[in-house]
Amino acid sequence: MKFKSMAFAVSLLSAGASLAATDADVDNSFYPYKKGFPTLAGLNPGVTINKGNAEQFKDALDPALYEMVKDGWVDIKVAASTNFPQPRAYIEATRKNLNKVKLGPKNGDIEGYVAGRPFPEEPDLNDPRAGEKLAWNFKYGANYGDSGAIYPFYWRYRNVSTGQIERTIKFEFHFLNLMHRVEQAPIPEITPNPSKIFRGTYAKVYEPVELKNTQLLIQRFDDDQKLDDAYLYLGFQRRVRRLATGQTTDAFLGSDMMIEDFEGYNGRVSDMKWTYKGVRNILVPYFNRDEQQHLTDEYKEGDGFKFVDFHGRGNCMPNVTYQLRKAYIVEAVPVNPNHPVGKRVMYLDAQSMNAGRAAIYDRKGALWKDFTVAKSHPDHDLPVNKGSDVALDASFSQVDMQAMHCTTGQFKVLIDAKLNPPALFQVQNMRGGD
């Protein structure tokens, strides 16, 4: 009888079951700093970490960033750690739907998800599917809330050795959750939605002229086992073509970014085998925009908005202050053996579940690309974003460490539902012309 009980317990664990989460787990998940922020001896606000003292502060740097600092690629300016609250409706949805969610029998299967953070309990190294649960927390995170827009969004391609800017692309990007909505009407779902699309991503190019009106549309299904629908409209060809699955791992518009790289990882849960590697307090570029000393006014915005600037080798890293924050380390290994990536190591911010830092390794195990997303606090940003409780993307950096090349991005984010009508995320919209 004891043997049967043990076998039953093991089967439950392998299917993704765990001890029931509690309200205390929800509080710890969304308010990880209620008992104080992490500290490290000597790591005080105002300290600059460089190659001269990198060893002293090694414990506060993820391995890839440590190597960059130690080798003189970049200096890190430290600021006080602060709270980055998540949307209240998202937190309440987590409480309301607590313990309704469980993993299915296969990687990429989830059952009972309604809204909020699927697995708010602290991950357990002894849980073989803890990494997968964190992947679901990332997928169903509150990034951009129910919808958000970026305009303008500047990408720059840079030579790491010389700092030369080879190309500048001006985009607009839009994101819309069609399902599992918690704040913006209609709640919980935009209908009709017969294909059960969870999230849409739409992008359009304005400059340079040879790429003008190039558009990208990604439709991600709620059923993670279904391949995304992705479409590209090339302005000079004036036609929409459907992207083959493998093209999401090609260089996007000649940059160092793959479509799969967007937001740290822009693929299906089922495309990767996920392993939880533990928790660390690391420095990430979370900051208050109105307190930064090195913003650039190179792009003249009518409202006086200033973008994040870059510094370091090749001007490839965001020139903002960093905070010491709690992060979960997740390793993602592609299921497809022909995938160009060997593994991704993502550092998911414990409070926001965003990937502030990620290291991408090639199939030989060598570091290939170093990825950073800088986050701005919404209450220190544009007036339209205040009170949204959305950690705002402010800049990204993707450094190809092998090709000595980088792509940087500068965001102006607007959390405004009016900018993201559902029609924008349909293929027919792409054929609208110039």
Largest sheet: 16 strands, mixed
Structural class: mainly beta
Low-confidence stretches: 1-17
Gap from first CA to last CA: 71 Å
**Succession of helices and strands:** HHEHEHEEHEEEEEEEEEEEEEEEEH
Strand composition percent = 25-35%
Question: Which geometry do the CA atoms define?
Answer: globular
Cα-based radius of gyration, to the nearest Å: 21 Å
Mean of all residue-level pLDDT scores: 94
State the share of residues found in helices, binned by percent.
Answer: 10-25%
Give me the number of helical elements.
Answer: 6
Compute the number of structural domains.
Answer: 1
Number of strands: 20
Structure, explained:
This protein is 12% helix and 33% strand. The chain has 434 residues and is mainly beta. It has one domain (1-172, 256-419). It has a 16-stranded mixed β-sheet that branches. A two-stranded antiparallel sheet has the order 3-4. A two-stranded antiparallel sheet has the order 13-14. The N and C termini lie far apart (71 Å).
